[in-house]
Amino acid sequence: MGILLEHIPLAYGSRVLLHDVSTSIPDGSLTALIGRNGTGKSTLLRTIAGLSEAASGKIVLCSRPLDQMTPLQRASTVSFVTTDKVRIANLACEDVVALGRAPYTNWIGRMQETDSEIVARALELVGMSSFAHKTMDRMSDGECQRILIARALAQDTPVILLDEPTAFLDLPNRYELASLLRRLAHDEGKCIFFSTHDLDVALGLCDSVALIDTPELHCLPAPQMALSGHIERLFAGAGISFDPETLTIRLAKK
Fold first, then answer.
1. Which of 51, 104, 103, 53 is nearest to 75 (CA)?
2. How many distinct helices (H) and strands (E) make up the chain?
3. Are 198 and 233 in contact (CB under 8 A)?
4. Cis peptide bond N-terminal to 215, omega within 30
């Protein structure tokens, strides 16, 4: 099992975001995390990554409790791609991707031939081999996001978390990036969990969808989530309707 959450609560100050969450996300699957703004999507991902601490409960990654892992074990188990725009002017893309090898290099960070091969393969998997010697300051948002995903692949972790990887991308690039994540999950056996506001991407390309309906988290296979009624409740009162058969969102008629 890639990710196992047992009785996890999340709060922001005195505000309860999630209460007693228990769910699992298997290896070799792509799972989308959806919910309205401010409901704790980023907080949940950061907590699973070990960057924030849950008040109670247990998080298990690849059969190992997160709180019992050393920093090195954690770095070789889970990688995290944030939603921040990264522009590193003086570092070639292959060097950015090589940062993912940090948990495996010696104390001075020297790369071995095997590390260089892993970096090259990570660039190839995301279709960015031709960008190896280019710098990110002159690349599009979609290209930069692919480089950051390649860095996570070079880190060679069984669990990959991404916070809104399709943000700031146009529609074709959103589908292309989500399709890439789907391929990586299925072909490389990764457990990939990412937050998104793209409901069509979540329901059309993902194996499962986790929906935050404060203070609950519902996690279902994508076809079941579309028919569950949870999405309709998510939009209740917002003047928006959802058609589960066509997976389309419309403004409600006045």
1. 103
2. 9, 12
3. no
4. yes
Question: Which pTM does this prediction carry?
Answer: 0.92
Residue position matching structure tokens 């960008």? 131
Is residue 1 within 8 Å of 27, Cβ to Cβ? yes
Q: Out of 81-85, 94-98, 213-217, 244-248, which region has the weakest mean confidence (pLDDT)?
A: 244-248
Tens-place pLDDT, residues 157-167? 999 999 999 88
Cα distance between residue 22 and residue 242, in whole Å: 27
Sign of the torsion angle spanned by Cα atoms 12, 152, 84, 88: positive
Number of neighbours of residue 71 by Cβ within 10 angstroms? 9
Contacts of 121 (CB under 8 A, 6+ apart): 153
Evaluate whether 51 touches 81 at the Cβ level (below 8 Å): no
Residue of 218, 221, 231, 229 whose CA lies nearest to 20 = 218
First to last CA, the chain: 47
Strands (E), the chain: 3-12, 15-25, 29-34, 58-61, 64-65, 78-81, 159-163, 191-195, 208-213, 216-221, 240-243, 248-251
Which class would CATH give 1-77+158-226? Answer: alpha beta
Question: For the chain, what are the domain ranges?
Answer: 1-77+158-226, 86-156
Token pair in block for residue 118: 């892993």
Contact 190/28 with Cβ under 8 angstroms?
Answer: yes
Rounded Cα gap, residues 238 and 117, in angstroms: 50
| Average pLDDT, rounded, for the chain | 90
- Looking up tokens 């950051």 gives 148
